[in-house]
């Protein structure tokens, strides 16, 4: 295991759950960690993402960190995940063609998945930023929201041969 992945494993010990190291399905590697409700956990989620994706191009790693920062920040600010005792999960997936970051939170009283807001609003711009960096998907689940961004790697060819 490389040094950054070892560091990611150490970070996880400060979180609420174990990381699933290198769960490989075909050519997909997945890593997942639970983070607690404290705003400081967003920095840990960023570092976890950076360490897991360390072998990818710097631009991809930076974009993934920005996405996780926005999505984890939203979970802490706008959902039950940000209340004492709350938590959210970060899943990072990597392949030869893309990196995917996903945050699953504990929802809010509205039950709706977050939406991109443009214009003069104070909130919603983070999702707009995420959508500019990757393919944004938001899903309302029975227990909360699952929001992900898929970031295509430079010079990668889609698995379906369309590129």
Automatic annotation (TrEMBL):
Q: Which GO terms describe its molecular function?
A: ATP binding; protein serine/threonine kinase activity
Q: Which InterPro entries match?
A: Anti-sigma-factor_SerPK, HATPase_C_sf, HATPase_dom
Instruction: Give the Histidine kinase/HSP90-like ATPase domain ranges.
Output: 38-150
Against Pfam families, the record matches this protein to: HATPase_c_2
Does the UniProt entry include the keyword Ion transport? Answer: no
Q: Which UniProt keywords apply?
A: ATP-binding, Kinase, Nucleotide-binding, Serine/threonine-protein kinase, Transferase
ATP-binding among keywords: yes
Question: What is the protein name for this chain?
Answer: ATP-binding protein
């Amino acid at each position: 295991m490389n040094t950054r992945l070892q560091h990611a494993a150490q970070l996880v010990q400060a979180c609420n759950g174990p990381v699933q190291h290198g769960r490989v399905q075909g050519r997909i590697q997945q890593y997942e960690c639970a983070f607690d409700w404290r705003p400081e956990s967003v920095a840990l989620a960023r570092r976890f993402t950076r360490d897991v994706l360390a072998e990818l191009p710097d631009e991809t790693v930076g974009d993934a960190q920005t996405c996780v920062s926005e999505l984890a920040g939203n979970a802490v600010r706008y959902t039950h995940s940000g209340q004492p005792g709350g938590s959210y999960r970060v899943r990072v997936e990597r392949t030869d063609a893309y990196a995917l970051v996903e945050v699953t939170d504990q929802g809010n009283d509205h039950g709706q998945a977050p939406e991109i807001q443009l214009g003069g609003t104070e909130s919603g711009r983070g999702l707009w930023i995420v959508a500019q960096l990757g393919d944004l998907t938001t899903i309302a689940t029975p227990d909360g929201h699952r929001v992900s961004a898929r970031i295509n790697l430079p010079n990668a060819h889609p698995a379906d041969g369309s590129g």
